[in-house]
Amino acid sequence: LNMLVFFFLFLFPPEINDGEGHPSSSHQTLKGTSKWATSLESLLEDPEGVKRFREFLKKEFSEENVLFWLACEEFKKTQGKKQMQEKAKEIYMTFLSSKASSQVNVEGQSRLSETILETPHPLMFQKLQDQIFNLMKYDSYSRFLKSDIFLNHKKSEEQEENSPEAQTAAKRASRIYNT
């Protein structure tokens, strides 16, 4: 029985909380710019990160890349053939057509004709989306991490963390007991 309990605790360790019921630092996940700096995937999972990245890409005249990637992500969640056809056509006309208002630069874009829009499927843009993701990951993402937009946001986060209001109950308690 003891071995079974040990095995269970090994597989499912109990949540360790601080005095306020928040996970302890060993269980906390990275937030904000720290999380964004770990990977492009992490950046794109955070709405604030996407906002800042878009702001940066706009200055580089390549905001259409992240907008296309986001549109493809949204497209994958679309239900119903009619809605998929409408969204597929919108993505095609906005980002892929030769007359697109925010055309992305992808290989094989000419092979994706309007006829494919009649029989849409959730992953129909996947190959093109992957190209754009890799373009962002290996090109603009690294520049973003060195940009004023990122660095200023990081600095303001650090100032917030170091402000008196941001002190945790544990820090306040340690001051009380150590006087």
What does this structure look like?
It is a single chain. About 13% of the residues have low confidence. This protein starts with a helix and ends with a helix. The protein contains 9 helices and no strands. With 179 residues, it is mostly helical. Helix 4 packs antiparallel against helix 5, helix 5 packs antiparallel against helix 6 and helix 5 packs across helix 7. It is elongated, with a radius of gyration of 23 Å. Pfam families: RGS (PF00615). Keywords: GTPase activation, Signal. One of its GO terms (biological process) is regulation of G protein-coupled receptor signaling pathway. GO terms for molecular function: G-protein alpha-subunit binding; GTPase activator activity.
Layout of helices and strands, plus pairs?
Layout lengths: L1 H10 L20 H5 L3 H6 L1 H13 L3 H14 L4 H16 L29 H19 L3 H14 L7 H9 L2
Organism: Acrocephalus arundinaceus (Great reed-warbler)
GO cellular component, one term: nucleus
Keywords: GTPase activation, Signal
Features:
179 residues, mainly alpha
> Percent helix among the residues?
55-70%
Radius of gyration equals 23 Å
Structural class: mainly alpha
- Tell me the number of strands: 0
Question: Roughly what is the average pLDDT, rounded to an integer?
Answer: 80
Order of helices and strands: HHHHHHHHH
Give the helix tally.
9
From the spread of the alpha carbons, the general shape counts as elongated
* Biggest sheet record: none
Low-pLDDT regions:
5-10, 12-28
Determine the strand fraction and express it as a percent band: under 5%
- Terminal-residue CA separation: 46 Å
Protein name: RGS10 protein
GO biological process, one term: regulation of G protein-coupled receptor signaling pathway
InterPro entries: RGS (IPR016137), RGS10/12/14-like (IPR046995), RGS10_RGS (IPR037879), RGS_sf (IPR036305), RGS_subdom1/3 (IPR024066), RGS_subdomain_2 (IPR044926)
Keywords: GTPase activation, Signal
